[in-house]
Amino acid sequence: MTPNDIQKAQQANLLDFLLTAPNQLANKPSLVPNADFTYCSLALTCNESISSVRWNGVCYMTGSDVVRIVAVRLASAGIAEPDTKLLKRNVVSRLRTIKEGRGMLLEPANSRLLTLLFQHNLISTRKSQKLFCWYQVPHDQLLEHELAHHRWKAGLPPLPKTLLRAPAFVDGDYPADHRLRRVACGVGDCPRRFTRLEHAQRHRAAHVQEKPLEGTTARIDRTANE
């Protein structure tokens, strides 16, 4: 396979993982007694991986994994070596809009969850850190911001909204009415399609009946966002 083929395959695997990881964990038994903890991972070609962690009925991802996802998607857009420190700072800054109890879990240092993550090599430190609800991370928005920043630095004009809203994962020709709704639900015979990856994730949560975070009042299937 050529490097381009490998990159395309990784993009397809990443999209599938982001959409289906909670389903993979739905019937997976807990790895520890007296708690609901398990996970599944996707290996990336950069000798790293991203993981979906189920803790007490809710699936999470770490902030580091969010940064890795953005980096992989930037590579697919032709930005192979982004400034890692700057990328992390930008992504972390934008993730601050996800508040504790409404899409984010703030774990204190050496908590049981962080200890389990550390023991399974899913994090590198047990210091206090944030975990983000799987269905609440705005992956496409994060990618759009980074693409816009890169083009601005290069002195290029911004991309049209219609191009930004088409997820970078998917290639191929689509009917006219689907050109901006490239992410399919994919659960059973569900015909729903979505403009953004995060909208498809929220919709799929309704299929798997993902338990919302304590204190969350917003509906998971947000039809207004389609």
TrEMBL record:
GO terms for molecular function: DNA-binding transcription factor activity; zinc ion binding. Residues 207-226 have a biased composition (Basic and acidic residues). It is found in: Nucleus. Residues 183-212 form the C2H2-type domain. SMART domains: STE. PROSITE patterns: ZINC_FINGER_C2H2_1, ZINC_FINGER_C2H2_2. It comes from the Eukaryota. Keywords: Metal-binding, Nucleus, Zinc, Zinc-finger. Pfam families: STE. The keyword Cell wall biogenesis/degradation does not apply. PANTHER family: C2H2-TYPE DOMAIN-CONTAINING PROTEIN, PROTEIN STE12. This is C2H2-type domain-containing protein. It comes from Rhodotorula taiwanensis.
